[in-house]
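Q: What would this chain look like folded?
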Amino acid sequence: MTLGSPVHRIVIVGGGTAGWMAAAALARLIPTGASVTLIESDTIGTVGVGEATIPPIRAFNAMLGIDEAAFLAATAGSFKLGIEFVDWGAIGERYLHPFGGFGFDIEGVRFHQHWRRRRAAGVVEDIDAYSLCAVAARAGRFTPPSPDPASILSQMAHAYHFDAGLYARFLRGRAERDGVTRIEGEIGDVALDGHTGHVRHVTLAGDRRIEGDLFLDCSGFRGLLIEQALGASYEDWTRWLPCDRAVAMPTANIGTAITPYTRSTAQASGWQWRIPLQHRTGNGYVYSSAHCSDDEAAATLLDGVDGPPLADPRVLRFTAGRRRKQWIGNVVALGLASGFTEPLESTSIHMVQTGISKLLALFPDQGFSPVEIDTYNRLAETQFDQVRDFLVLHYHATRRTDSPFWRDAGARAIPDSLAEKIALWRRRGRLFRWEDDLFAEASWVAVLLGQGIVPEGWDRLADTVDARDVDARFDRLRAMFADAAARMPRHEDYLTRTSPTRVRA
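A: My prediction, written as structure tokens:
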């Protein structure tokens, strides 16, 4: 096998969050001195509304040398300690999927196994009382994690809520300072090399050609390069994830409280998000068009918000799924061009981030080795499928039968990989992560228990620990977490002190 020449010209088709994340990362981290050009059109809107994230976004920002306070101020951001799920298991129920873990292992046995044993002994309590992030979130409080593993605050973990459009603007400024060239224009044609089948150049209005060695497709759902030019094809997951539309609308904040968590409220034909920013609140209703009209969805959203609207509801259409290949030839798809699993667990930006990370780890030369491309596609496929399974769990675990949507959800077949995971959990509460699963064991525990799937038994190794000692440890831990949360500043006070927004509502 011979090595090819280095990639000298990187062309990113499309801006928005995905495009500017890629531009900022490549301009800073590619050591070959390759040029980075981004093509976008101000006349083509982006999907981004209020955006919620998961903790790995902190590593991406740190990799780019981004100061947290400056980032939050520029994006009107707030802190996120988890997601509250309302009415998902049954109407009237709510639970938190917090970041971080639950408690501490006792004598080498998982904390949730001891929780299950105590439940069998008659101690009925929510497990999130043993998550510092959950306790702080419920109290509306926040403080950053401590780097000292001996500190109780080392149990804190956080992500962010922010305005996705402002994040793209923030990254654009950094990328352009690092040498990225932005070209305004719409792409009218994509030229392929007759010998390799690779993209040779794209043509803008006025017949301006932009040539490149490596192209990143950040063109959104349409997949201008990966699909329209190279025919990647799309794997449709509607049979598992039936929601295919969302209606979004920002509202003004009422009062001073900015909750440090996202809220997902199950509705008759889907679910409604609430994402609190410093200058406004992002709201949306994700729904199935087979069960609900656009007008009905907009009315449901308007009835469910807690502030005056700042804009008219906007309908977005999508099909849950992924491209069958996300890297073909010299084109790598990122963001919505690569696939979409709906925003239930705030994974959209993370999938962009992990795509960029895999590209950096497998960065090609102009030989575009099939081995590297196949490895990227296999890793991308695995991660998309793992996220899919975690999302499907939420719908499958419902006990609701009050509407056709939820009756269908409970009866719908699920992927075999998820069925196996649930079966193992139901027996004795055992969980295993496969191939660097994005969601940690604690995340699965939170959703499974939160929606009422309690294991029939527990790991019998838990029985080797004296029950009185376990009870005492639980009591101490619960008191420690409650005390630590009470000592934290209120979330909005911490934001005001450290990173007040520079954006006006």
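The CA atoms of residues 10 and 37 lie 6 Å apart.
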